[in-house]
Amino acid sequence: MGRGDDDDDIDQEDMEQVLFQGPMFGRETNLKQNPRLVKAALVPVKKMISDGLSRRAHTILLEPSQGRVAIRFVVDGIPYPAGAIPGQRGMAMIQMIKVLAGLNPQERNETQSGGINAEFEEVRYELLTDTTLLKPGVERLKIRVENPKITYLKPADVGMPEDLSRQLRGFTEDSKGLILACGPPESGVTSLSICAVHCVDPYLYSVYNMADVGGKQLTNVADYEPEEGHDLELSFDRILRREADIIYMPPLTDPAVVQMMCQFADRLCFVAEIPAKTPAEAVQQLIQWVGIDLVNQHLKGVIMQKLIRTLCDDCKQAFRPNPQLLKRLDLPPETTILYRAPAPPDPDDPDSPSIEELCEDCDGVPFHGRAAAYEVLEMTDGMKEVVAKGMDPQAVKEQMAADNMRTLQKDAIRLVVEGRTALEEVQRTFAPPKGRRPKTRRRSPPSE
Length: 448
Ligand SMILES: [Zn+2]
Prior knowledge:
The chain is of the alpha/beta class and 448 residues long.
């Protein structure tokens, strides 16, 4: 699969345009089989995706609504409207993207998933493309933008605090046990679990990968392909003979796999994702799969992260926090400077400049990028007792506080103290979602 599916002469625009370099996952596409679609929709699709990438969108949504297709760019977790395309043209764009991703454009009644390899401004991107059915024949298309390089950065590169990477490194030091990463969808759980693997000291330990990471190579990690006919037990045996210390596993979903991991967890250390929204849920899931005793015997800890928008460095404003605020946030009284977003322009004052005029860097948002706040549930002796007694959620909280564990809220305040985000943004991030309706009522698809 190479370049060439795309007609490079097609656009002569001033703005640099994205290059499509063929579908992902070994799929194939043939634009020549869809000449009308290409004529109608390739250029608008290129423009839209180029626009999205230049605005740092990590998700692009195309959603049919009231005879149009509404486009939204999600930047740093916040969706922004990016225009609405009249019906037929909008639908053609959805079909065009499906063709580019190697999906079947005729199929409009089943969800499909694929991806497009792309390049924009000399950066490679993976555009993971999913369709979901809104009603028969009407589908919503979602593109998740991944920069393959960014996903595999080192702990320090993603802003993981040194004491946290030291703690995670500590979990791996005896080459035993289970280390899990969890979190809600789109909270970067895969990146987090890979980051945990990258906390290991590569000069002292040998690390193997058994997960599918999209054909990429993890830094200082050797791939392990199970030999044909070998089950997991034999594979773990073989990997042990290669003097492996740590194994990065595929996301855990199968109890039998987790039980086998526990059989080897006194000789190997496993790092994996587990589908759970919080560390406490993750522990409960693990208990369901292997029972309390094995959890207490082998689990080292569970880590999660929450992404919080960081202030634009160009327009953030310093202020001197008053003593009450410092006390409320449990900050050292000698803290002299915190940062906040600039006040929005006064609409009643014609002379007041708009934020756009004030800051070219962030277009007045005034946030740029996101940073992670972390939480680590460590299996201390106290926590093992809580687990043995049945994992009461309140008891988990109290134990985390008693053992001074890192929690999302506490760690988010670290980002405030470091001047990377504003207190208001932390409060917004942790506020319960607005307009949540009772579960019994049918929800219409989001249309904002
Ligand atoms: Zn700014």
